[in-house]
Amino acid sequence: MSVVFQRNQTCTSPLVPLNTNAVLVKNLYLSCDPYMCGLMRPTTSIEATYFAPFKPCSPIIGHGVAKVLDSAHPDFKKGDLVWGMTGWEEYSLITETDFLFKIQHTDVPLSYYTGILGMPGMSAYAGFYEVCSPKKGDYVFISAASGAVGQLVGQFAKLLGCFVVGSAGSKEKVDLLKNKFGFDEAFNYKEEPDLDAALKRYFLHGIDVYFGHVEGKMLDTVLLNMRHNGHIVVC
Predict the structure, then answer these.
(1) Any idea which of 28-37, 135-144, 189-198 has the lowest mean pLDDT?
(2) What is the DSSP letter of 24?
(3) I want to staple 25 with a disulfide (CB 3.0 to 4.6 A). Which of 66, 79, 89, 212 is the partner?
(4) Measured between alpha carbons, how far is 152 from 123 in angstroms, rounded to an integer?
């Protein structure tokens, strides 16, 4: 999900400090992603191992699209469009620019850089093609398949010629997977009293690729239905 700012208000923006690589941006789109929930918990949470937890009384940090207003960084100049880590605020002074990338292609909606051309798209593409090493005809199962990453993995798999099944938590999401995203089959896991029977209904000979967003009982059941030399990605 992306959030767009459309507000007219006069304000004084901060200046870029001298002798730094800082970049001042005006935020255009912000992405609200599931991993952000973990950053609101104590630092022992899994998400906090690769992103710093949110600080009370400070702006939330997340992925977004922005326009450069001023820059002391040699790779960014005024007027550049960028995507990456920024603040949930109208203007952000970004001092850590390792996760800031210049947008080279502006012939698509900028909001795509919070989705298929941003973090969800990169996670889906790298996880599926690089980690899973899929091939045509593979049997692919995706849990939480209607999410930002899962629905992209399913579409990549269909383009490759795989048989794709997804699980989701409502009838509306199941319909979305089958009728819009082109999954071969989908089911509501909340309506399945026996997950093992549900998986065997769609994967009689086992699963080649599991792209998982869910642990616990779902993962335990999938492990019992994996084929030899199968691949699992835990996202």
Answers:
(1) 28-37
(2) E
(3) 66
(4) 9
By residue range, what is the domain housing residue 74? 2-114
pLDDT band (50, 70, 90) for residue 2 = low
Domain count, the chain: 2
CA 77 to each of CA 14, 49, 96, 107, 112: distance values in angstroms, whole numbers, following the listed order: 16, 32, 16, 20, 22
Burial class (CB in 10 A: 0-12, 13-18, 19+), 8: exposed
Cβ neighbours, 10 Å, residue 46: 10
pLDDT > 70 in the chain, percent? 90
- pLDDT at 101 exceeding the cut of 90: yes
Residue 48: give its domain's CATH number: 3.90.180.10
> Which long-range CB contacts under 8 A does 12-21 form with residues at least 24 apart?
13/69, 13/91, 14/91, 14/93, 15/70, 16/70, 16/71, 16/72, 16/93, 17/72, 18/72, 19/72, 20/72, 20/95, 21/72, 21/73, 21/74, 21/95, 21/97
- Amino acid at position 89, single letter: E
Q: What secondary structure does DSSP assign to 76-108, as a single string? A: --TT-EEEEEEESSSEEEE---TTEEE----SS
Give the pTM.
0.84
